[in-house]
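Note to self: keep these together.
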Amino acid sequence: MTLKAFSYRFYPTPEQESLLRRTLGCTRLVYNRALAIRTEAWYKEQKRVGYAETSSMLTEWKKTEELDFLNKVSCVPLQQCLRHLQTAYTNFFDGRAKYPNFKKKRNGGSAEFTKSAFKFKDGQVYLAKSTQALPIRWSRTLPDGATPSTLSVKLAPSGRWSVSLLVDVEIEALPRTDNQVGIDLGVTSLLTLSTGEKIGNPKGFKAKYSKLRRAQKSLSRKQKGSNNRYKARLKVAKVHQEITDARKDNLHKLTTRLVRENQTIAVEDLAVKNMVKNRKLALAISDASWGELVRQLDYKCDWYGRSLIKIDRWFPSSKRCGNCGHIVEKMPLNIREWDCPQCGTHHDRDINAAKNILAAGLAVSVCGATVRPEQSKSVKAGAKSPRGRKQKAKS
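Structure:
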């Protein structure tokens, strides 16, 4: 059994929208208060405040006259936001994320309801404190017999309401196939496959750039705090939503196709966060969404019984001749085709890289060999470190 989320849009009635907005506001207030208290306790007293302490504080807040309105919404989303804050701190201390930020009203918000705070009856969802079912547009049906264990309501900055139902389902593995593919990620061509196929990059941001520019110029002219500025901000958010939807739709169709057609998929393990620090390439790389593409391939391969192999980022896939194995010293980005100085083979840069990635991936999957070159930057850095010198001396 696998946990799978099904997301739908819904259009709340005025009464439901009022309740949901109050719930999101209370959730945001509790989260921000707890974050401020935990931050202040550390900087002033060097004291760590955990989830248990903030949960006790929430109980006391509800008893005060100032925060009495917290009792008018379901208590479950308020407790869940404290758990999310604890998770954010755990990720921060483990080095997986930055320090938690305060939530802002203009970014919309979300609220999570566990089983005790909603009811799923006759294919309809009833939230706590509400007698009417959520008017969900069921674009696809839930699996037979599936009952949601968790429900998340989200308000996007563009004003769009959506609900995500987490259910436990049995996902059948796809029939096995002998197809294998290596993938080279790029900007001009989003993907280059080892089969020689090149898949173009739709460049969703560039397609909507003119429309976004007009909307942002209009927003900049509006007086802060005015209703016209609020409406102009919504227009900007809707353009961003269009870009996000188009990008996500393209990536889902692309990754689903690759998983269905191939048993083994090899990709490079790129450090996208480091690559976007280059201001000349940051926009193009972010628009391509390489990280999201690999993330989707990862969980879809796990669902459907496929193998995803990630090649070390320092593997010289572009500089290595796929025919004789010769590695050239330099390969600037403007060189898209080259001839091997060793054997004279003519290469298309991207196709050659995809073939090398596939070959390296198969070597790793068969014998567990490393594809990291001996003179790679990470190897040199490890050798220069005290730990690296110590291990080298032992060997």
